[in-house]
Specification:
38% of the residues lie in helices and 24% in strands. The chain is built from four helices and five strands; from the N terminus they run E-H-E-H-E-H-E-E-H.
């Protein structure tokens, strides 16, 4: 059974990089969104097993998406992917799994694998 992953980033190159890593390493279907608002729309249509989101975006930031997910989809694991991990000011909870700098795609892969997020 394929698992559904939502990648949210306003930079197309980052979405392509993360999607490539996920589809080559895990049995998953990947949907892309370029903003928090677009992600919210996708979340209302499809049941996702994991969301990987940038933090700083136009048209619905990752922080906004985080709060929307905690309110409406608290069971879906969320990984924050950001260029500036020191700027993350979100409360710790059991579904915000980790924060990774955008140049740490291999670390993202290891984290997903080690925590069984897509198994």
């Amino acid at each position: 059974m394929k698992l559904n992953v939502l990648i949210v980033d306003d930079l197309p190159d980052i979405r392509v990089l993360v999607k490539s890593m996920l589809t080559s390493s895990f049995q998953c279907a990947v949907i892309e969104a370029d903003s928090g608002q677009a992600a919210s729309l996708e979340l209302s249509k499809i049941r996702f097993n994991l969301v990987i989101s940038d933090l700083e975006m136009e048209n619905g930031t990752g922080t906004w998406l985080y709060h929307q997910m905690r309110e409406h989809f608290p069971e879906i694991p969320l990984i924050i992917l950001t260029a500036n991990p020191n700027s993350v000011d979100l409360p710790p909870d059991n579904t915000l799994r980790a924060v990774f700098a955008k140049d740490r795609i291999y670390g993202l892969y290891c984290f997903i694998k080690e925590n069984g997020l897509l198994s």
